[in-house]
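Reopening this one. Same input as before:
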Amino acid sequence: MLHQISVRAALLALAASFSLPLLAQEATLAESAAPVRRYLVGAALSSSQSHVGSDERELGLQPILGFWVGRYRLSTGRASSLWNVGRATVVDPGLSTTLLSKSDWSLGASLNWDGGRDSGDDPLLAGVPDLRSTLRGKLSVGYAFAPRWSLGLSSSHDLLGHEGGGRYSASLGYRQPLSERSYWDTSFSANWGNRDYMRSHYGIPASTLRAPYQLDGGIEGVSLGLGYTTALNHNWVGYAGLSLSRLLGDAARSPVVGQRQLWGASVGVAYRY
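Same output, byte for byte:
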């Protein structure tokens, strides 16, 4: 019942993106008569690992893509932070919009496709069912409580009922401008999951041949990020970043976890219009 309520709430909140701006004209972002169209395209070289499954490190080239029409943005993960370097609030990846923006507060919503997980031949995932892909809806609240400091809260839910559950995050960020065109920033975040999320991502069902591992809702882990972003000129932007994440609690003790603590690095460049 709680899962159904949370999904309905997320759907209603996303639908509100089409009505809230009309009901709160003072709180919305200023729009011109004609929709503003922008795009961003680039690539990033990243080195990363996954907490779940074998701890093999992957080095690969990933696309950075984004398209912006008026209040609505469609982007990959990193493109969302490169739209307007140092001039706009970071938006979520996927299809996103800013519902409200007033003073130091902002409210945003996004839809993002979660590709799931394929157990494949990974020995740590042997016998564990695949994690089905699904559409996730997310609500995010941001508060800039000081010139360089910000707080964030978000709630993400599986909208298709594919046992993806709900994931919640709280973050603290700091941004240090270095010039009008560049800055470095750091962030610390903590993540939690409800029972469905924790069991689908870290659990082992009793129906498998392996010893079952059941979890309840609780903390998933914490992460720390450090990055540098710069506008090389009017159209080109570049960035470099480091990340560190650690699983905690029942998630860290799961038999499907290869590494509790991981680090990652990425560097990229993109063209924006």
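So the earlier flakiness isn't reproducible anymore. For the record, The first helix runs from residue 2 to 15.
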